[in-house]
Design goal:
By secondary structure, the protein is of the alpha/beta class. Helix content is about 35%, strand content about 20%. The protein folds into two domains: about 180 residues, D-Maltodextrin-Binding Protein, domain 2, CATH 3.40.190; about 120 residues, D-Maltodextrin-Binding Protein, domain 2, CATH 3.40.190.
Length: about 350
């Protein structure tokens, strides 16, 4: 079936010529971390606030998760944090802004390793993971979900498929390059449905489109539906199992319900730094990593995540090697579904 993409994002913003590159491959860097570099060597760090760049809008899922983390991180790093939000072009605006920041380890990127890595793989950004940005700590991971608003006549995946065989299905998504978008396009391909993706530029407007039935359904990370409570009815998860049944209407996995073989589609939150800062300031990076690990082990962080409405089962600490491997795996997924995501 033909896949139509309705694009509301602004035109892509080109990188400065000195950032352009002929390739955009993401690979695990094999960096060995900072064994032997002790925080004691960075006793004057941080001497001012840490800037956090978020490539989506204020009030969305990334903002929620970053603030839950920093609410506890401050007591381990002994500093304050200030946030900047730079939505646009599926996250490219935020990444370009971040690359223009001073690479001194006082500016961090809070990344969503699903949609943003897909964006880097598909768009001509001139930014490479490993060469330009290193992800030093993963915090959370969650699967993608397809869901409808409380007044939708669609109550099951089977009903969605039945409707989709008679007319195109409109799907609200936060941005086209997204694991949830891949899931819906793969579902349409497997079940003979025409899927029309409608990007809304963030989780909140995406959710409202489904709640008000502006679109037939929405596809987002599952936490978004859990936070919405009875305003969202989950039809299915792009996962091997539903690890949060109480918050998701005991929804089935898409593969179990429909007999498909769509790969598990997840996204992870991770902290990124400039590669230049990583190389020039190993003492500062060591201080960041040490304090991040302490935060993840702190019971107060678990409480902060729960207070934000996120199931604590999604807390998924991962070191640099794991975060970089996740980025590499997501890049391969983007390449696999490039034609579906670009409409080519």
């Amino acid at each position: 079936m033909t896949k139509r993409l309705i694009t509301r994002a602004p035109g892509l913003i080109g990188r400065r010529s000195f950032l352009r590159t002929s390739g955009a491959a993401v690979a695990a860097t094999g960096l060995g971390g900072f064994t032997g570099v002790r925080k004691a060597f960075a006793q004057d760090y941080p001497s001012r606030n840490i800037d956090i760049v978020i490539p989506t809008g204020e009030g969305g899922g990334a903002d929620r998760d970053a603030r839950a983390f920093t609410s506890v991180w401050g007591k381990h790093l002994n500093t304050n944090f200030q946030f900047g939000y730079f939505p646009g072009a599926a996250g490219q605006v935020g990444y370009e802004f971040y690359m223009d920041r001073e690479p001194d380890a006082y500016s961090l990127l809070f990344a969503n390793l699903g949609p943003e890595i897909i964006m880097l793989a598909l768009q001509d950004t001139g930014i490479e993971v490993g060469r330009d940005i290193v992800f030093i700590q993963q915090t959370l991971s969650e699967p993608m979900a397809v869901w409808v608003g409380p007044n939708s006549p669609i109550r099951t995946l089977e009903e969605l498929v039945e409707l989709g065989r008679s007319r195109p299905i409109t799907v609200a998504t936060s941005r086209l390059p997204h694991p949830a978008s891949i899931g819906m396009l793969a579902l349409g391909e497997a079940m003979g449905m025409e899927i029309v993706l409608v990007p809304y530029g963030g989780g909140n407007p995406t959710a409202m489109a489904a709640i008000t039935q502006e679109t037939d359904c929405a596809a987002l990370p599952v936490t978004n539906t859990i936070v919405l409570d009875d305003q969202a009815h989950v039809l299915g998860l792009f996962a091997d199992e539903n690890v949060a049944p109480e918050g998701t209407d005991n929804a089935p996995t898409v593969n179990d319900a429909l007999g498909t073989s769509i790969p598990e589609l997840t996204s992870s939150r991770a902290w990124g730094v400039h590669r230049a800062a990583y190389d020039a300031h190993p003492d500062r990076i060591a201080a960041l990593v040490e304090s991040m690990e302490a935060t993840l082990a702190d019971p107060d962080y678990t409480a902060a995540v729960e207070a934000a409405g996120v199931p604590t089962v999604f807390i998924d600490p991962g070191d640099e090697a794991r975060a970089m491997a996740s980025a590499a795996a997501t890049t391969e997924l983007a390449r696999r579904y490039r034609d579906l995501l670009t409409g080519s």
